[in-house]
Amino acid sequence: MLQLAYAVPAVLAVVLGFVGLLQVAESGAVGSTGTVTATAGAATGSNERVAAALERVARTEHVTIVRFVADRASPVDRRTALTTGAPGTRGATWLRTGYPDFSRGMSTRVEPMAALVEFDPTGTYELDGSDLARSATVDALRSVGYEASSEAIPLARRLGMSDRLDGTLGLVGLVVTGAVVLCLVGTVGAPRRYAVQQAFGRSSGAVLLGECSVVRALLPLIGVAVPTGAAALWWYNRLADVGPFVLAVAAIAAVLLLPVIAAHGVGVLAALRVPMAEGVRGARPTAPLVALAQVARFPAVLLLVAAVFDLVGATAVARSGSMDRDLRAAGASVQLWVTPDPRPVDTQEYWDRIGDFAASALVDGGAILAAPVEVPVGAARSTVPVLFVDDGYLRLRDVRATDGSRVSPGSTRPAVWLPDGTDLDGTGLVRALRDWDLRNAAEPGVHLSAVRLADGPLYTFPGDATTPTWLDDAALVVVPDPARVFTPDQLGSWLSSGDVVFRTRADAERSITRAGIGREFSAVVDVGQAAAEEARRARLAVGVGTAAVVSGLAVAVSLSVLATAAHRRRSGRRRFVLATAGVSGLRADLGLFAVEFILVACGVVAVVETWVGRRPDGTGLHSVLDPVARAADPAALLAAAVVVTLAAVGVVVVGSTARTVVRERGAGAR
């Protein structure tokens, strides 16, 4: 037990160090000490001026400034690093020898900062210098018309030790608790060997020093594990960033093992206080210690349920669209990023101006409307996903009816098309649209199409991960003249969320120049590039979620074994007596089976509560358009299956340990 108490935290330190550093490496550069975020200001300078300003700071402060951009053609496994090249810095080395990717699944192409002319200059820049270097970078960006803010990256986050995995701190707490219980069960619960050492006249200090043999027994395992791990890391990434990886593992291991060492020492001292005669007979673990081992299992199950929901949600976001299909559908379209809060919060003038701009762009044909909306119909919690589009969308996208004909513009009033095979109440939907969303239509009537849409999802030009890329169960509402039907406030909101999309960058720039409101937008971003960034983040979230579920499951199973082992050490001889008396296994271990039942009940309650909190509720808090909310049902089923499986493992452990106790005739237990 004592060797296991040291081995499990050490293994977890390696896993957390690897996963944490993988997150840091895929989201930025390992070793960066700070970030500077740039947004468009009142009069922004050219990209060439931005690149030149950053290069000056890099040379003056002797730092590396780098900006990572996902590759639009292959965002999952390729990206571009735009870096300064001051002599003697990491950036100069990267430009000369390439970037050492820690993740085997990520390939980084290095370009000088001068290549910024091909990208949006707004965004986050990383640097590995001091606070003075960050301040100089902020000043440089402001000197060319950009607003900038900086943030220091804490050492823990640089090593991947921050709580970026949902439930990581809880997982670490459970592992430490389990290891501490193992130490106490292996010392206070087994005082015989300490009583024997006392009988031979060894002092308390000598006994404590003798406990180092537990760690020495692990040295052969460490001698095998270190070269094996080094070889695996060489195969994985040619030992890229091996220094930060070793430092991260050492730091995490120290955090995990310090409580274990303290519990080991306290347990030994407590065992030495047990009377020698009682210790030689073999004392048993105390009831509170056994209860602690069982109680520690319950938060482990709660963390595991949350991890399963997070993993399924991340997978749903990653699978909400095919990357190749998304890029083809996006084409050359762009979205505008609205400058955050450039006006007093108590006025509406800003959003009216943005809305008028969006309406003008829609009328001119430079922009198109593709706005997914959740429309409440019928009961309070009954909602329907709806995609509002204009004629420009139908000219750009090939949408077909069930008879094979293409849905084309032509009607002068809004028309509603229902998906084929749906049980939606078309009359109720039309009534809801007329009463609210289309209440400003020039004609009060709304046409409900007699011919339904053919099978096939509708593309939404997604602006973020809260809306799926494709909708396969949404009604299509064609609004020929959105500038007259919707208010400027609504159109401005849709512009800011990426639902008013420009056909090309040239169309967007032309509309902005004509309106004279360039200062209101921080960037013009390709829809495909935004989708590429989302795909990369979704991929990372799936990997992190998988690690969280596997780690949580391993901890939950380990705690199950530990709790049962502690119970057997305390009550093993009683279990043997009951078996020899002919008592059935169910009756003999009724307490342990009751714990498994309560564990399942608590897990099911946690599953139901999480499901209720995440599923679409018709209030807008959890939208039916959100892939994470739409995945609540399969996530609940998977989480329930994991809880039941964990309980089944506990039952198997109870049965196997019972047979072991009977076979060994309760030796060493009371």
Automatic annotation (TrEMBL):
The record's keywords, sorted A to Z, are: Membrane, Transmembrane, Transmembrane helix
Q: Where are the transmembrane segments?
A: 169-192, 213-236, 242-274, 540-565, 586-608, 635-655
Question: Nucleotide-binding as a keyword?
Answer: no
Q: Which residues form a coiled coil?
A: none
Please indicate which superkingdom the organism of origin belongs to. Bacteria
Protein name as annotated: ABC transport system permease protein
